[in-house]
Amino acid sequence: MIRADVTEKILSAKRLKGLTWKTICAEIGGGSPTYLTAALLGQMKLGPEQAERAAKIFDLGEEETLLLQEVPYRGSLPALPPSDPLIYRFYELVNVYGTTWKELIQEEFGDGIMSAIDFDMAIERQPDQKGDRVKLTMSGKFLSYKEY
């Protein structure tokens, strides 16, 4: 069995049981909804207690529960550029604003990167009279390059 099989089983059970990520994450607990959803989709790992709670929700077996706790092979996009329109918009944002973000971040912090490991993200619905907006808040630890 491979981790992708567990992801497919989780997505199938979610669909058949009519569950939402919000409900699932509340039942599993111990992490942000973003992290827990990423873990259930195979991009992060769960702790033993979280994996056990997930196993109950999704009717997973012992090997599947253990796979939820292993360090995953990260990267879920099958091709670049991504073909899914929603995901493509993030790709487009990086293509258009990436150099701007780089310049502004490095002007403020110096030569380095924003961590994608020590990282927080929140997704919110922001009501707007012209149509609801998606509000993303991302916060990653700044890591300076070392001179040696």
Provide the CATH top-level class of the largest domain. Mainly Alpha
> Any idea what the CATH architecture of the largest domain is?
Orthogonal Bundle
Any idea what the shape is?
Answer: globular
Q: Strand percentage, roughly?
A: 15-25%
Major β-sheet strand ordering:
1-2
Specify the structural class. alpha+beta
Helical element count? 6
- What low-confidence regions span 5 or more consecutive residues with pLDDT below 50? none
Determine the mean pLDDT. Answer: 95
Rounded to the nearest angstrom, the distance between the terminal CA atoms is: 45 Å
Secondary structure: elements and pairs:
Layout: H1 3-17, H2 21-28, H3 33-40, H4 48-58, H5 62-67, H6 85-109, E1 112-126, E2 133-144
Antiparallel strand pairs: 1-2
Account of the protein in words:
The chain is of the alpha+beta class and 148 residues long. It folds into two domains: 3-67, lambda repressor-like DNA-binding domains (434 Repressor (Amino-terminal Domain), Orthogonal Bundle), CATH 1.10.260; 85-144, Cyanate lyase, C-terminal domain (Cyanate Lyase, Chain: A, domain 2, 2-Layer Sandwich), CATH 3.30.1160. Helix content is 49%, strand content 18%. It contains six helices and two strands; from the N terminus they run H-H-H-H-H-H-E-E. It has helices at 3-17, 21-28, 33-40, 48-58, 62-67, 85-109; strands at residues 112-126, 133-144. Strands 1-2 form a two-stranded antiparallel ribbon. It is globular and about 50 Å long. The termini are far apart. 11% of the residues are buried. The mean pLDDT is 95.
